[in-house]
Amino acid sequence: MDARENVAQLMPQAHEELTELVALRSVADPRQFPAEECERAAEWVRERFADLGFADARLEQTSDGSKVVVGSRPCADPQAPTVLLYAHYDVQPPLDDGAWRTPPFELTEVDGRWYGRGAADCKGNIVMHLAALRALGQDVPVNLKLVVEGSEEQGTGGLEAFVEAHPDLLRADAILVCDTGNAAVGYPAATVSLRGMVNVVVTVEALATEIHSGMFGGPAPDALAALVAILSTLRDERGNTTVKGLDNSRSWSGAPYAADQFRTDAGVLDGVSLLGDGSVADMLWARPALTILGIDCPPVLGSAAAIVPRAAARLNLRIPPGTAPDAAEPSLIAHLQDAAPWGVHVTVDVEATGSPFEASTDGPAYQAMAAAAQEAYGRPLAKLGQGGSIPLCNVFEQTYPGAEIILIGVEEPQALIHAPNESVDPGEIEHMALTEVLFLRRYADQGRSGNV
């Protein structure tokens, strides 16, 4: 029986296991869900991989209190390369239960898709790993290492600190970060670019206190109007981000993102234009993007006839590879301060920064993955970017500078990760499991370099 048939026959078991895993409400926030749910999910993962040859599979405590599952499965060939398999068992909260068409923690099939929180992000990738390993059986031609974390969605950095504290434990020639996905169902892709970020809060002060708009309006400076004026300088009339000092002319060299498909994926309303003078892919993955996340000012309901003395906004600046956060941060701060009208007082507090990431695509692991995806899907492996950041990739890159980092997974736009009605197409689990099987076999032949 060939690999394709092996994987296909394992899909009923994959459905059963994903049903069990989705039922575990592993939201890594004890304010919303019991911490025991994450503990149970971690133990579930440990047991399944221990049964598949990871004899030393165990739970390790991380600095943020979460448990990470680690383990290894050596092969008989001492010259074989080592591959690290990554996923995470924690999930986003379900948000509005009433917005779900099915119970969020009960895997339910609707129109051929499997619905449930974490079905795609990222429990579907855990099940995908298990199916691939079962399809290989005893014939695993590389050394395997495993890390499945429990706080990725909270962004508290437990695994990042764990990697830095235990660098030899997870050292590998190739690292499969299985927490991204394909361009569309049936169209394989590797994510090769991740945007970094700079989050700030800008505060504008103009008056000592509120004053009557009838008595003082006109000559008195309005902090909210000043804030609006500042924010209006961050984009031009086409919607391009215009933070001084940042390059807004780069183009994306990977797979395109059709504008009509993006409008559908993003839920853009009829008649509303897309932003920027570049392509969708340019704007998403090659250029800076400034988003206003929130504004502190009087709400409409309950507002008075008074001039606002103080207003603030929370901003998120996404930066592409090639732009460092320590360069973007002062550029953004200087832009906000220079744009302030009327001499109002402006302070900018930095909340968080993150570096962008760009994967190498010229090594033996990537070549083996591209060939494996072509065979599994019958289509070439596309190169995608991702708007979000994954700080772990930067930690992997810094800790293991010789390793190839490949971002793949079962997610795709219809999966609606982080939103109500998250789902996975079972065909993606099947095809990605087959891709992983074929990759491990090919990489065993192509990647015997030991160059980590």
Walk me through what this model shows.
With 452 residues, the chain is of the alpha+beta class. 32% of the residues lie in helices and 22% in strands. It has helices at residues 3-9, 11-22, 35-50, 123-136, 158-165, 213-216, 223-232, 259-266, 280-286, 325-338, 364-377, 391-399, 426-446; strands at 58-61, 67-73, 82-88, 108-110, 113-115, 143-149, 174-178, 189-194, 196-205, 211-212, 289-296, 306-307, 310-319, 345-354, 357-358, 382-386, 404-408, 423-424. It has a six-stranded mixed sheet with strand order 1-2-6-3-7-17, sandwiched between helices. A hairpin with a 5-residue loop joins strand 1 (58-61) and strand 2 (67-73). Helix 1 runs antiparallel to helix 13 (426-446) and helix 2 (11-22) packs antiparallel against helix 4 (123-136). The radius of gyration is 24 Å and the shape is elongated. It starts with a helix and ends in a 6-residue tail after the last helix. The mean pLDDT is 94.
